[in-house]
Design brief:
The protein has 344 residues and is mostly helical. The protein is built from nine helices and two strands. α2 runs parallel beside α5 and α4 packs antiparallel against α5.
């Protein structure tokens, strides 16, 4: 019982070590286990055990070479991902990925707060009404009904933005877990399970899963960020302002008793990116102007919502699941991940 408690107390200390040390320790433990199996076969004269131990030892040598290649590849990728074009100053590839996700999440959170503020102002203006009593008779005038047209697009924009925020938050948490446990936990367990033929499939899958989470998931996020930045830089050569900067879209005050006819003249705006003229001072004109300004203000965030917050995590997950099959084949285990890819 005391040994079991001591083992449980030492588990947190294992994660304090780097994954390189844990992988090397797992390889040595596997070699020791194979040595024990070989000595048992030699002592009892069981040739099958000796042959199995020799065969698995050769497999272990190949696995040790793969771990060494993984160590070198990880160092090279960490150096590339922290250079000037991406995230200079980041400690490694995982930290650079977390910085990218945090920046995108903060932008999406700001947009969601703006949409909530706009929706509150629109609801307040649309609910205004005016009443009049004349000769003991009363009637009401709802001159602010035009502001109700802003509620459906704001609701849709809020739903899409909240979905993008949830996707970024989930991806950020997944990268944090992968950075802490992908290689420090899955790789050593996979090496130990792959020591014997009966558990080789499970060990190969854990090794492939750990490598994919540690490498391919951050690579997917960084690749999408590079793609987005390249697209944005090239688009500036053709469009003066794209993505358009956010503009002030304050909801004007509505006079519920105003019954003036709307002003019909509307300026044609090139590509919807230019400034809008004052349509008039009637309630309908104010609602139309607020709608056009809101559309342009929210459009300035579409690049972040669609490309960085939605497409980026999808590309990263697809790259991760696609690499699992190739890595499991390399590790000596065939795993079909097509169902997971279709789900993503």
């Amino acid at each position: 019982m005391k040994k079991l408690l001591l083992f449980l107390l030492l588990i947190p200390l294992a994660f304090a070590a780097s994954w390189h040390e844990l992988a090397a320790l797992a390889v040595m433990v596997s070699a020791a286990l194979l040595g024990v199996v070989y000595m048992i076969g030699f002592g009892f004269g069981i040739n099958e055990l000796q042959m199995m131990a020799r065969e698995e030892f050769f497999q272990l040598i190949v696995l040790a070479v793969l771990v060494a290649v993984l160590t070198g590849s990880d160092s090279i990728l960490n150096s590339i991902s922290t250079l000037e074009p991406l995230k200079p100053g980041a400690a490694d590839m995982q930290d650079a990925t977390l910085d990218i996700l945090q920046e995108n999440r903060e932008q999406v959170e700001g947009l969601l707060d703006d949409i909530a503020s706009y929706d509150k102002q629109v609801s307040k203006q649309a609910s205004k009404s005016s009443q009049c009593n004349l000769m003991s008779m009363g009637y009401s005038v709802s001159g602010c009904g035009g502001f109700s047209i802003l509620a459906p697009p704001l609701s849709m924009a809020g739903g899409i933005t909240a979905f993008a925020l949830a996707e970024l938050s989930a991806m950020e948490r997944l990268v944090e877990l992968a950075s802490s446990y992908a290689l420090a936990l899955l790789l050593p367990i996979g090496i130990l399970l792959r020591t014997f033929k009966i558990t080789r499939g499970g060990g190969g899958f854990l090794i492939a899963l750990g490598i994919s989470l540690h490498l391919m998931l951050p690579i997917g996020i960084i690749f999408n960020e590079m793609l987005a930045e390249t697209f944005q830089d090239s688009s500036e050569d053709h469009i003066d302002e794209y993505p358009p900067d956010g503009v002030s879209a304050d909801i004007p005050e509505c006079n519920p008793g105003d019954t003036k006819a709307p002003h019909l003249a509307v300026e044609i705006v090139t590509l919807g990116l230019g400034s809008l003229t004052d349509l008039g001072d009637s309630n309908e004109d104010q609602a139309t102007s607020a709608y056009l300004n809101l559309r342009r203000s929210i459009r300035s965030h579409l690049f972040t919502i669609l490309i960085k917050a939605t497409l980026g995590p999808i590309i990263a997950l697809l790259m991760m699941t696609s690499s699992i099959r190739a890595l499991t084949h390399l590790a000596g285990a065939e795993v079909d991940v097509s169902a997971i890819s279709r789900f993503i």
